[in-house]
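Quick note —
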Amino acid sequence: MSALVAAIERRGLTAFALVDHAAGAREAGLELEEEQVILFGNPRSGTPLMQADRRIGIELPLRILVWQDRAEVWIGYRDPRELSNMYNVRAHETTLAQMATLLEALTTEAAGL
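Predicted structure written out below.
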């Protein structure tokens, strides 16, 4: 997660929140291997999408899930290009493609690939 946060910050993006699912589980007396979600983005990119269809706000800001499964750490995200099928944002397919490219670059960099 620290490598991912550093990659986000190097690009001048805003990290809005970090959700620690494992910590929440522990507080509830449950067990869960490490799992965190970071919410981040740039209002200049996301706002036009929400202006086109306010419902897409449930999908924004962008988010990446990092979780541990035994000794392995995994990184996942939802491809933003899929959102054009769910919301009235087809006019912003270029932005969605740029977001997908960004997510791929961030996760690749954080994984050290």
